[in-house]
Design goal:
globular, 308 residues
């Protein structure tokens, strides 16, 4: 029994050794599984990340330091690098002198409506340009992209005349309606849906008898949710920080946050600490939004990257 099984084992071992790949000189190559292997960052990566984090946080830190001192201390050389004792008093002064309560409410309304409308209309247009077939699609897309080349300052005079004819001058609709959708948002959603939304899903909806709005609601929106979250955040921040057009069409009795901050710089001697306190007040809502929704937005970006 032993003498008969020995040749069988020898032949099996020979076949196994013959199947193993060999390198130069007949040496065997060890195959290591690579799937699921994790790559650990080295010390240099952590150093670079720490430097980038410090550079990103420093402007906000300097704003807080300048807002916590007086105007004389801010103007000294070298400037202060540690917070002072006047932070809350300067914040209270900036809140009262710039009417920040009303300005923040106006900015919240303007930025919220613009962000929601941009996400809705840009997703609809992006779906149409990415997956629907109709005449003139490419020409219309080029026209939309071409509008990004036109400086917005060229449209200020006719746009202001239009708002005056509608009776919206010095009112929030004059800021909201001209920016209900952006070409950047349409192009962004078109590019995302062209990659992340398979044509088979749209065709399957057509086969089941669903119309375009039904396909948009049941198929497109779940796929586009990560990109919509990113577009909402970008549009909200841009609308919150927009200064040029609100400064033109609004007055100091109904301002947004950037327009209200101009009241703090009036006069011959500018109080830099007071201006920095107002800027800090205007930044706090954006920071709170990032803290509350930052994890959901990052997870949405990662989910969209994996799906794409």
């Amino acid at each position: 029994m032993t003498t008969q099984s020995l040749p069988a084992r020898t032949d099996a071992a020979a076949r196994t050794s013959a199947e193993k790949p060999t390198g130069r000189g007949g040496r065997r190559l060890l195959l290591r599984p690579r799937a699921g292997r994790q790559h650990h960052a080295g010390p240099l990566a952590y150093v670079l990340l720490a430097i980038m984090a410090l550079l990103s946080i420093f402007p906000l830190y300097w704003t807080m330091v300048a807002a916590s001192t007086d105007n004389t201390r801010v103007s000294q050389t070298p400037p202060p690098f540690l917070p002072g004792p006047n932070l809350f008093s300067n914040l209270a002064r900036a809140w009262d002198e710039a009417a920040m309560g009303k300005a923040m409410m106006n900015s919240l309304i303007v930025a919220g409506v613009i962000a929601l409308s941009t996400v809705l209309f840009a997703t609809l247009a992006g779906f149409a340009f990415a997956k629907l077939r109709f005449k003139g699609r490419n020409a219309l897309l080029m026209l939309v992209i071409g509008t990004m080349l036109v400086p917005p300052q060229l449209a200020v005079v006719p746009l202001f005349m239009m708002m005056a004819e509608l009776g919206w001058s010095q009112q929030l609709p004059a800021v909201i309606f001209p920016t209900l959708v952006s070409a950047v948002g349409v192009f962004f959603m078109r590019q995302y849906l062209a990659e992340a939304l398979p044509d088979e899903l749209v065709e399957a909806g057509r086969v089941d008898g669903a119309h375009s709005l039904r396909i948009f609601w049941s198929i497109v929106l779940p796929v586009a949710r990560p990109a919509m979250a990113v577009l909402f955040m970008i549009t909200f921040v841009h609308a919150w920080n927009d200064f040029f057009w609100p400064f033109v069409v609004l007055d100091m009795t109904n301002p947004t946050v950037p327009v209200a901050l101009t009241q703090l710089s009036a006069g011959y001697v500018r109080d830099q600490s007071l201006i920095m306190a107002g800027a800090l007040l205007g930044t706090l809502p954006l920071l709170a939004m990032f803290i509350v929704f930052g994890r959901q937005i990052v997870s949405g970006i990662m989910a969209g990257a994996v799906k794409g």
